[in-house]
Fold:
Amino acid sequence: MKQKIRIGVVCLARKTFDFQAAQDLFKQIQEKIMLIEDVIWEIIPDLIFEVEEAQDAGQILATKSIDGLICINGTFALGHLILEINKWIRVPILLWGLEELPHKGGKIRLNSTCGLNLNASNLYKAGIRNYHYCIGGEIDKDWLDAIRILKTFSTARVGIIGSRARGFFNVDVDELDLYKQLGVLIDYYQLEELLNMGIENVEIEKRIEELKANFDISELNDQQLRKVAELIVRLDEFMKVKSLTSMAIRCWPEFAEYYGISPCAAMSVLQAEGKILTCEGDILGSLSMLAHVAIGGQYPFLADFSQVDFKENFALLWHCGVAPCNLWDQKCTRSLDTYFAGGKGVTAGFVLKSGDLSILRLDYSPPNEYRIFLQQGKAIPIAKELKGTFAKVVFKEDVRNVLNKIIKNGIAHHVSVVYGDFIKPLEIFAKLKGWKVIK
Structure:
């Protein structure tokens, strides 16, 4: 399910054009958009001709807490109208132009595209750049998805336990600037608060049985198995109690020492249940995953470009064992392994399933440069010859070019990966925010 949003809709017109035809087209549009799921519509049903009508519409929509505004040019209209409405509702705008109708008597009937052009120029020169446009009979659903991303960020509760991992300066953020950009506030917690949380033994026993049923646990001793189960329960309960939408974890170096195992395997299980958890204290990794979920992506996971093969033209998207365990290829054995941290690793181990992938990194570079890294690729079969969770990925362009974009632009080494095509809404989101797109 996508993020639910509330969208205002107005239709502008001028009586020197065929406004009656525009009204009929507007009614048809209303019927179509009402079928779109996860959108609450706030529609001004009558055409807006005059400044006073635009002011009234703006005041009405200002009471509705809309997340975005669709401004349809039923015909060419006065340039005042969108500016008057915008006085009341400072939200992203979709300028929607209609295709021209067949001429009658040698006269342009709608002149809608020209009206859209006028509105775009007025907004741009007024310093209002958070608009997008489309022309035709169908709404741009990618714009709606971009609004879903904005809504998700502005309402998210983002937590971090124990700060970022040691030496990972590149995943740090400027908290107040992030709040300025996206409305995100970060809640900090200490590892002790998580590890001292009281939990029910019956829940631990349930998780132990689930682990036995879903993984090869032959490498674990009874204590390690129980600790994984306990941590699953703790993390799940912690997120519920703190009402967290996502949580980044400083998973090393202290975690294994203080608790006895690393959190990787527990995170893999919970991510398969829809929780957004990121390792190494990567807050922007969490937000990247939240953006994927906002637009319908299921079970995003964090990965590194860990092995690049220029000769065979592929890369391994690998991490130590945190990818959602329900995404395994159903051919290899899913295992819980203790291959790092002096035998205290306890990570999930499997090959990720084949399929088309979308890759995203929301990234920050001081002093205020935000950018979005986007790529598409395809996971293809590979044997399970490594520990951890990984996919062999070929990209739409040469892997050397993909890596060059990452290195040249200093993109952080974690990306959010999700199955499916989730590119265009993020490009529109970046445009609305004035962020650079690297793809």
Summary: The mean pLDDT is 95.
